[in-house]
Amino acid sequence: MYHPRLSGSYYEMGFKYGSILKRVGYRAPKVSEEMRKFAKECEVEVKRVFPEILDELQGFADGCGISFEDLKAFFLSLGSEKHDSCSIFASSSPYPVLGRNYDFYYTYKKYAETCLTMPRNAYWSLGNSTIFIGKEDGINEAGLAIAMSTVYIKEFRPGVNWFIAVRAVLDKCSNVAEATKFLLNVKFSTGNNYLLVDETGDVAVVEASSQKIRVREKFEESFLVATNHFMHPEMKDAENIKERPPTSTRRYERITEIITLNDGKVDTELAKKILADHKGSVCSHVKAIKLGTLWSFIALPQEKRALIAAGHPCKAHYKEDKRLKQMLIKKHRKNKVFGALG
Fold this sequence. Notes:
Elements: E1 5-8, H1 10-23, H2 33-49, H3 52-64, H4 68-76, E2 87-91, E3 97-105, E4 113-119, E5 125-129, E6 137-140, E7 145-150, H5 162-172, H6 176-184, E8 192-197, E9 203-208, E10 213-217, E11 223-226, H7 248-261, H8 268-275, E12 285-286, E13 291-300, E14 305-310, E15 319-320, H9 323-341
Parallel strand pairs: 1-4
Antiparallel strand pairs: 2-3, 2-11, 3-13, 4-5, 5-6, 6-7, 7-8, 8-9, 9-10, 12-13, 13-14, 14-15
């Protein structure tokens, strides 16, 4: 996995990353007229909820020496790809923790990255993705962690895709309440579960589609699980059940079973055990279509820590990415010095 580190204004972050990719021969992706038209309709909503990302795309295009319009058409129209087996869970006991396996085709492994973003006047975060600029999971300096899973929906409408939504939450929100409020105000193009946990132990799943959005919260249980289908009763009619991945229910039930047998408590070691589970296909190996777990991510909000295993968690070792924590220590020291001088 690549490990870029970006800081400054949104334009500056984009320009730096675009310049890096230009040196390795990155070329603008091909876009169709249909993608251009759809992206143009999506741009209205993106400008309303997260206009900063467009500045970053402009910077990326300038730094890479490619067409901003082509890049924008590609990035804003993303979301129709099939993600067959992502699994996520979060618990507040004995301490807040989020675990997720990101499963996709092995050919995308070469695009996988863990990016530290330090935007000016926004929250800093560390997260993973297979697409530049956007994120698919992560944890920010406020102690908010998020991860998404795809749900196949009946209608794909212009709006915000998950790459943009996850990045916006990490940059703009400090806790689950703020993230939930933000996501409820978004018009989505894609169907997704967004699982959230913060340093206080608040946990929620925002189930989102282009038609409607609902929030699933923990009640008696101290945990929540999300795979590739909706669980909220009011979201069932938005899902294209015929396209539901065959392992989605099995993975959901297996994760729930393991956590329930442990009285609802999930520590770091149990999180690793769950993510490496083969009985419920949580750790994915689908050789026939060359699809499986590209990375496994564990976030510890109270400590601002992120543990990442590149590849199948049944084999790969988890390593702590310490960059966010290290940069926050430097930021805190710098603020103390300026505070003393002031």
